[in-house]
């Protein structure tokens, strides 16, 4: 796992005030990280343009050009005239070593690389039309695009705002939570964490959120030989009106290592289950239950799941009784944004549109998890797992997973982890990572991926 922070301003200040590292030294190391990407990707003599605002991002970009000048043909365009003191210092040195000042009348198409130093992670509100138009032009260029810290415009998705579409985002000092928002996924490119000249453990401190990586994936193990199927849990899944969802969840749970899997048929569907999956008429003797997926209008006695480990999904989030499971530390809730909107309303957290959910995913997931002891898995392009106010972001998903039944497979995977005696939080984190990795190892075209491919992929994690 890697730590995630909203911003790094307090750490920068601590480095200067308490560790004796000057702000210019921090900027030198930030600039060096940008310059190294340029050197790795472009041949000597290429034309580099930095487009700058007035803040510390501009200082970092100017310093990077100073380092590159001589090897590369370097120019700067300023969108603001009131530079801060550090940017002025960097600019004076840069001009002395041959960095040129350009303006928007120049031919932008002649540049091989554009460095975005316009806005930082603190940008809020409406973007000036002039700046939005510049970013739009920059995005149209056939050039290497590098964002200093975070692509300009990512922080706000307001009408009229443009977002710089980077090939690389060089994140300064600590990884920023905003880089992993759903709205940022198509703009950040490859994220690189720049070391500012001090070890992470010395630079950052205190509470954080976390980026979970595929390397963090812990698989169920069967290291002991003197065991039986009973040692690996018995998963029960409620089958409602849409039986396919329950089948996908059941097959996922079985292939992820649950000792036994049973389906309880609530709607008297004509089920054709795999031989390894048992058909039950009740939840008697159940200890782990999945419900909601494909539930539809089927009659479901939610009380049978009370005080039991469970995964709550899909249609369950439109019933008032879902509050009982939000209040249970034994429950894992797996809504997509529309379902989360309903869950928030039912739980008295307010009314939010899907757009509002998507634009405030981190804040709302955190708020929900501080008030309800269940483990939340908020699905999306980057999945958020939240418990007790701490966010765990899994960013390794892909568009392959945007297919009907994908969420049902995820529910089954998490159920299998619960059956293997993982805690609800660890079940959620590992379940999401296993789900995402199954898509990564798929060899076919992105558009051909199905829930069956998720299930097959679980065999090879």
Automatic annotation (TrEMBL):
K(+) binds at residues 57, 116, 152. Catalyzes the epimerization of the S- and R-forms of NAD(P)HX, a damaged form of NAD(P)H that is a result of enzymatic or heat-dependent hydration. This is a prerequisite for the S-specific NAD(P)H-hydrate dehydratase to allow the repair of both epimers of NAD(P)HX. Bifunctional enzyme that catalyzes the epimerization of the S- and R-forms of NAD(P)HX and the dehydration of the S-form of NAD(P)HX at the expense of ADP, which is converted to AMP. This allows the repair of both epimers of NAD(P)HX, a damaged form of NAD(P)H that is a result of enzymatic or heat-dependent hydration. Binds 1 potassium ion per subunit. Its cofactor is K(+). Keywords: ATP-binding, Isomerase, Lyase, Metal-binding, Multifunctional enzyme, NAD, NADP, Nucleotide-binding, Potassium. The gene is nnrE. It is an enzyme of class 5 (isomerase). This is NAD(P)H-hydrate epimerase. Its EC number is 5.1.99.6. It comes from Campylobacter lanienae. It catalyses: (6S)-NADPHX + ADP = AMP + phosphate + NADPH + H(+); (6S)-NADHX + ADP = AMP + phosphate + NADH + H(+); (6R)-NADHX = (6S)-NADHX; (6R)-NADPHX = (6S)-NADPHX. (6S)-NADPHX binds at residues 120-126, 149. Belongs to the NnrE/AIBP family.
């Amino acid at each position: 796992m890697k730590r995630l922070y909203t911003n790094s301003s307090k750490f920068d200040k601590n480095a200067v005030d308490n560790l004796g590292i000057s702000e210019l030294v921090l900027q030198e190391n930030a600039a060096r990280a940008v310059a190294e990407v340029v050197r790795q990707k472009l041949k000597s003599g290429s034309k580099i343009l930095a487009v700058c605002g007035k803040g510390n991002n501009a200082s970092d970009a100017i310093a990077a050009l100073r380092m590159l000048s001589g090897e590369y043909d370097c120019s700067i365009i300023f969108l603001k005239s009131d530079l801060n003191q550090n940017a002025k210092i960097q600019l004076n040195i840069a001009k002395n070593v041959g960095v040129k000042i350009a303006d928007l009348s120049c031919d932008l198409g002649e540049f091989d690389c554009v460095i975005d130093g316009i806005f930082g992670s603190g940008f809020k509100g409406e973007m000036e039309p002039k700046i939005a138009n510049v970013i739009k032009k920059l995005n149209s260029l056939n050039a290497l695009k590098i964002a200093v810290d975070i692509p300009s415009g990512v922080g706000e998705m307001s009408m009229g705002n443009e977002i710089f579409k980077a090939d690389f985002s060089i994140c300064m000092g600590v990884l920023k939570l905003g880089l992993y928002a759903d709205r940022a996924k198509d703009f950040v490119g490859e994220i690189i964490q720049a070391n500012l000249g001090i070890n992470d453990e010395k630079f950052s401190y205190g509470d954080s959120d976390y980026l979970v990586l595929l390397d963090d994936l812990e698989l169920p193990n069967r290291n002991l030989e003197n065991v039986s199927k009973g040692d690996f849990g018995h998963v029960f899944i409620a089958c409602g009106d849409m039986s396919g969802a329950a089948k996908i969840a059941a097959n996922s749970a079985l292939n992820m290592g649950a000792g036994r899997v049973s389906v309880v048929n609530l709607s008297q569907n004509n089920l054709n289950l795999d031989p390894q999956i048992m058909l039950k008429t009740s939840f008697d003797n159940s200890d782990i239950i999945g419900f909601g997926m494909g539930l539809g209008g089927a009659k479901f006695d939610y009380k049978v799941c009370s005080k039991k480990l469970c995964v709550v999904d899909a249609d369950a989030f439109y019933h008032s009784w879902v509050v009982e499971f939000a209040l249970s530390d034994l429950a894992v809730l797996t809504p997509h944004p529309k379902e989360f909107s309903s869950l928030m309303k039912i739980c008295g957290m307010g009314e939010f549109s899907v757009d509002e959910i998507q634009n405030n995913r981190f804040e709302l997931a955190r708020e929900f998890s501080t008030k309800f002891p269940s483990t939340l898995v908020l699905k999306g392009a980057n999945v958020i797992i939240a418990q007790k106010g701490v966010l765990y972001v899994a960013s390794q998903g892909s568009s392959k997973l945007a297919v009907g039944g994908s969420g049902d497979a995820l529910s089954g995977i998490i159920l299998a982890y619960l059956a293997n005696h993982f805690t609800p939080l660890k079940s959620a984190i590992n379940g999401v990572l296993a789900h995402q990795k199954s898509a990564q190892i798929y060899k076919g075209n992105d558009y051909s991926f199905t829930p069956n491919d998720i299930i097959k992929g679980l065999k090879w994690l």
